[in-house]
Amino acid sequence: MAEDINTEEYPTEIHDYLATFEKSLTSVDEMLKTMMSVPRSELLQKLEPLEQAKLDLVSAYTLNSMFWVYLATQGINPKEHPVKQELERIRTYMNKVKEIADKKKASKLDKGAASRFVRNALWEPNPENDRTPAKAKKRKMN
């Protein structure tokens, strides 16, 4: 791409930005080719439901982000377009999926082990060795 563009057609200050952008586009293109090489149904069968949800959300977010960029290149302010609300909606669901994944990773409480730990940690007086002093008699003060 950079070889095809005459440097006189755009300001030279943005050449580095364009080169980086071209590398990013190439990377996205390679990822899309990899994703598209496997039928979606086959890919989803190999994934757990939570992973399927993540894949769907990332796909939706990516498509909407690319549309955002397209709108910007056409001179349309994407912040005033419904795509902004769609991206926010997808982000909300991404956060929900992340919370579910975090809960799944959190350690589970083994109730039996916890009760044994608490029972053994608490001191229980042995009735045979109870050496507590007898109750003192109360004196009346005159």
Would you give an account of this structure?
The structure is a single chain. 1% of the residues are buried. The chain contains five helices and no strands. The longest helix has 25 residues. The model has no long low-confidence stretch (mean pLDDT 82). The chain is mainly α and 142 residues long. α3 runs antiparallel to α4.
Using brief descriptors, characterize the structure shown.
mainly alpha, 5 helices, 0% strand, single chain, elongated
Radius of gyration: 33 Å
> What is the count of helical runs?
5
Structural class: mainly alpha
Q: Helices and strands, in N-to-C order? A: HHHHH
In one word, what is the shape? elongated
Q: Outline the biggest β-sheet.
A: none
Number of DSSP strand runs: 0
Mean pLDDT: 82
Distance between the termini: 108 Å
SSE arrangement:
Layout lengths: L14 H22 L3 H6 L3 H25 L9 H23 L5 H11 L21
How would you concisely characterize the structure shown here?
The protein has helices spanning 15-36, 40-45, 49-73, 83-105, 111-121. It is mostly helical and 142 residues long.
